[in-house]
Structures are given as C-alpha cells and as structure tokens.
C-alpha cells in the first residue's frame, strides 16, 4: 500500500480526511461499490490496493465520488486507447531532450511538483497533437505513483512564449476535450493550479476554446500571469522555480525527471494496460 512519512500522513489527515486505521475499510467499501456498479473486471488494469488508494485520495475518501472517478477513468481509457498508454522514456528520448515538458521534484515545505510545458519547444514537424497528450498522460501516470504527490497534487505552468500558428492549429476540439478530461474529470490527481505565463496578445481567443469545457472549480484555478513573477510566486515558491520564472534555480533541468521516468519504466510496462 502507498505509505506516507509521518508528516505527510498528518497532511493527508487534515486535507484529505485520510485515517490509516479506516483505510482498509474504505478500500473494501470501494471494491464493493464498484462491484455493484459493474466496474470490476477490467483485465488490462492493475487494480490493487495501491491503485484504488490513489483514487480515494483524489476524492478525499468520499467513496461515492471515488466510484464516479473510477468510472470516468475507465471510460477515458476506452475512448482514447492510443493516448492512455505509458510512453517509455527509453523510446521517446528525443522528445525529452527538447525539455518541452519537465517536472520539478522539490519536496521542501510540502511543495507540490510543478509540470512545466514550454510551447516553443514543441516541434510539431515531428510530433502530433495526440502525441503531446500522451506525454501529458505519462506525466500524470508517473506522478501518481508517488504517495506524496497524491497528497500534494500538481501545479501546471503553461509557458506560451513563442507560440505560433502551428501551435494554435493543434488546439482541436479533441485535443481540448482530452486535456480537460485528464485535468479535471478522469484522472486521480489533484490539480492545484494552471498558471499561464508569457502569453501573447490575443490569448483570450485561445482560452475561449477551452473555457466552455472547464468546470467552475477548475476555472478558479486558472491564473494568467504574463510575466508577473510575484503573482506566480503567490502560488508556487520561487525556491522551486527556475530563474526564467523569477525563481532561485538555474535553467530548466529535466535530468531528475528523466531519471524518474526511467526508474518507473519497468514497473509501468509490467502492467498490461501500459504501452511503449
């Protein structure tokens, strides 16, 4: 089972209503409710206690809400089978070397990991829109393996510097609905905030494509900062950010994140529902 260090267990108790003494009972109740709902039996999923605990934490141990989340997760996987596959770092090294997507792994002061996506690093002459979504899914799958991240959730920084017409064209209805589904509806991960930086003039028109798909709760978590790093630091401490966002770290280094991907690759691919 996904055990937590004592200080993180206390954070989970306060923020997620997690009680280790009651966790076995909640897991059993969840399994019973899923059986009643006809959801078990997905042979391509590794549905052990650790799997279900991730979902319970994402819904603060509310079993009924967790059942709905598991249902949406399974439906998402059936709807987008090519996207919902782990992208092994060993087979996608070229993408990772671009540093288009990386994740900070600082754990000081209970900080949530930060996904940094730099739009101008996406070479759309070599990758497709749904390839980008698959990489995002892989980030979520990898982060969800960490019990502390299950508690802290994730921040997303979307850096739009250098956005061009090719990038705008990739924002299709399918792309929008899939990303939103992963972020707010179908994946067992708490979204702490979506932070848009370096957006160009006319960003409002791009955001308008997403906004109708966003629940009010997620809309409140979208923050458009431009280059106002003080505003960004109100949500994410400067200590965990690279200097290009007014932080105290050097440039974006995806080395630690790449090592994390490589470390979990064998275990992820051992589950039959993961890809390559």
UniProtKB/TrEMBL annotation:
<dbReference type="GO" id="GO:1902936">
    <property type="term" value="F:phosphatidylinositol bisphosphate binding"/>
</dbReference>
<dbReference type="InterPro" id="IPR036273">
    <property type="entry name" value="CRAL/TRIO_N_dom_sf"/>
</dbReference>
<dbReference type="InterPro" id="IPR011074">
    <property type="entry name" value="CRAL/TRIO_N_dom"/>
</dbReference>
<protein>
    <submittedName>
        <fullName>Clavesin-2-like</fullName>
    </submittedName>
</protein>
<dbReference type="Pfam" id="PF00650">
    <property type="entry name" value="CRAL_TRIO"/>
</dbReference>
<dbReference type="Pfam" id="PF03765">
    <property type="entry name" value="CRAL_TRIO_N"/>
</dbReference>
<dbReference type="InterPro" id="IPR036865">
    <property type="entry name" value="CRAL-TRIO_dom_sf"/>
</dbReference>
<feature type="domain" description="CRAL-TRIO">
    <location>
        <begin position="113"/>
        <end position="253"/>
    </location>
</feature>
<dbReference type="InterPro" id="IPR001251">
    <property type="entry name" value="CRAL-TRIO_dom"/>
</dbReference>
<dbReference type="GO" id="GO:0016020">
    <property type="term" value="C:membrane"/>
</dbReference>
């Amino acid at each position: 089972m996904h055990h937590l260090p004592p200080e993180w267990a206390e954070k989970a108790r306060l923020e997620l209503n997690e009680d280790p003494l009651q966790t076995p009972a909640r897991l059993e109740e969840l399994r019973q409710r899923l059986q009643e709902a006809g959801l078990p039996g997905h042979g391509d999923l590794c549905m052990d206690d650790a799997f279900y605990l991730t979902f319970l934490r994402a819904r603060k141990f509310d079993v009924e809400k967790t059942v709905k989340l598991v249902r949406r997760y399974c439906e998402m996987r059936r709807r987008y089978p090519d996207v919902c596959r782990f992208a092994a770092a060993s087979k996608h090294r070229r993408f990772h070397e671009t540093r288009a997507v990386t994740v900070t792994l600082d754990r000081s002061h209970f900080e949530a990991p930060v996904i940094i996506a730099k739009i101008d690093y996406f070479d759309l002459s070599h990758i497709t829109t749904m390839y980008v979504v698959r990489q995002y899914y892989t980030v979520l799958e990898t982060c969800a393996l960490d019990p502390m991240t299950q508690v802290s959730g994730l921040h997303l920084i979307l850096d739009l510097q250098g956005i061009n017409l090719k990038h705008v064209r990739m924002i299709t209805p399918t792309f929008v609905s899939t990303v939103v589904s992963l972020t707010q509806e179908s994946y067992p991960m708490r979204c702490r905030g979506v932070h848009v930086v370096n957006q160009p003039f006319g960003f409002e028109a791009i955001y308008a494509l997403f906004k109708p798909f966003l629940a009010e709760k997620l809309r409140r978590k979208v923050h458009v900062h431009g280059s106002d790093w003080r505003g960004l630091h109100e949500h994410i401490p400067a200590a965990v950010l690279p200097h290009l966002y007014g932080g105290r770290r050097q440039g974006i280094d995806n080395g630690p994140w790449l090592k994390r991907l490589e470390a979990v690759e064998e275990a992820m691919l051992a589950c039959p529902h993961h890809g390559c």
